[in-house]
Amino acid sequence: MSEAIEQVSAVLDRMGAPRALAPRLLAALGTGAAERLDADPWLLLRLPQVTVEQADFCARRHLGEGARPDDPRRLAALTAHVLRMSAARGHTAVEEKRLATVVGKLGVADPAAALEAAVAQEGAVVLESTDEGDDDFDFDEGGVPEIPDLPDPERFYALPDVGHAEQRLGEQLLRLIGGNDPVMDSATAAETVDEAAERGGFTVSEQTRDALVTVALRPVTVLRHGPGDAAEVARALVCMDAIATDSQVGIAVAAPTAQAAAAVNADLARIREAGAGTGPAAAEDGEGTRGTEATAEEDPATPPEAGDGPEAAKPPVRAVSLAALLAGAPVEAGLVVLCEAMSVGVGRAAELVSVCADDAHLVLLADPGQAPSATPGQVVLDVAASRTAHVAELSDPAEPGPIAELAAAVAGGGVPEVEAPGREVVRVPAASAEEAAHRVVQLVTDSIPRALGIAAEHVQVVASREDGPAGARALNAACKERLNPGPGAHGGFDVGDRVLLAADGPGYGPGDTGYLREVDGGAVVELTDGTRVGVTDPSALRPGWAVTVAAAHGGRWPAVVAVFPPEVPVSRPQVYTTLTRAARHVSLVDATGGGLETGVRENAAKERTTRLMHILREG
Asked: Which domains does the chain have, with CATH numbers?
């Protein structure tokens, strides 16, 4: 045990709190954690599992008569606690009156004083937005517009890191939008797209061509696509690469996680093979015969086949993880493309946009049917709604595969049976959570590898909850017992364990999955693309055979086993996002007793309170 953890544990002992909280408190509070906690026991509320009642108990034990209900430390902590709970639900800010109401329900006699205390102690920031509305000016009979009075600005409160990140994101997007210089003119862009398609041996629809012309003309574009559009996305990336090459601005393609980048590169490889006649034709629905497991064997430095023109002198376009792209900042490319953009919150998006050059064109490739990011914000939706950026759409596949067909049905509110001659979709009913867990392990370790030839290491379990008999925690324990049994001698892990990375670090980011390869002198994790990264912070590692839907968002795998146990709230975006994590196969283990269908039908997307749209409009 480190000295810092021991110091925090000693403070916890004095206030009657479990010592087990020490590592997470140290991670939350950072340098000087023990001193800060000793001076302010309500900092226990920085941990989501600690309740207000528990924090008050520990404060009274630690401070005695000094623990007053109106203590500014308590008021600030309660306000920040509400903001953290709100951020956990995806909101970036809370309107002032709403925040005061919620804080008051916690027993605070003077909510306004609590909000002031939070700002004074830097636990919250105050932000203002003016809702300009969507109405055009009204014209009187003389033809002179009647300009409405501007409403009073709304006051919002936010956690400092979240509020500042959203503000920074808006300002940086406005910087790019202000550049507004086309990469090439529309006619040249259309010709470049057609030439790239001819060289690649594929065709692009008029809709996709128009969308790519928009990318060349406009500084910020939301490029929408639907489920099963992996092949169309890959073709679009090939064409965007040609636009960047012919205009000599360069291109950078990123995906939120290493496994998503590997999946994109596998899609690109299929397109190249089909065009060269060296492999099977790329499936229109993106559910081809190879998955991301093929990408680790492909040399990213391998040049294309010899030929004429600039394409022959450069390696083919490849995606990298967002963490890897940010590690090489600043990004000098004139065309920056973010795949799976729905999964990226305001914090990560602000990092990306901030390192783009002033004249860069930013493309947010996104499937709007997916859930918003697990972290605060709804970047793609807000950028599109702001009307300051352009929105274009890629063509949907003419004949969607079974996974895409089911996902499209879910987007419409249904969960029908779909024909899957290649066993792309399998429904597995279960009578209980325990039976569901048994089925999951059976699918991962036996059925899918045997029937489909997809190795267990390329199957990802996606659970709809963390706890319970069929939650991610229990499923990880069961999978480890079958796939890599061991004592967990290294902080609960053994070499060979599948892990999920839950924090940023050199070359990796939250949501990356891989395998623990070394532990001596620090953990070394091999990511999906074969890259090995050193992880110095043990708290960044989580078991990774099974992950929650939130953790899976932004990743793609050859096969996914989705499990929905009884009495778990199910929503349409949750199921849709889970389905679209799979490239070749998805097994739905359903123990909801009809709850899956009901949730998809009745529980559509929940609204989030964000400020990005207003920031962009006010800019």
From this structure: 3-129 (no CATH), 176-400+610-618 (3.40.50.300), 414-490+535-602 (3.40.50.300)
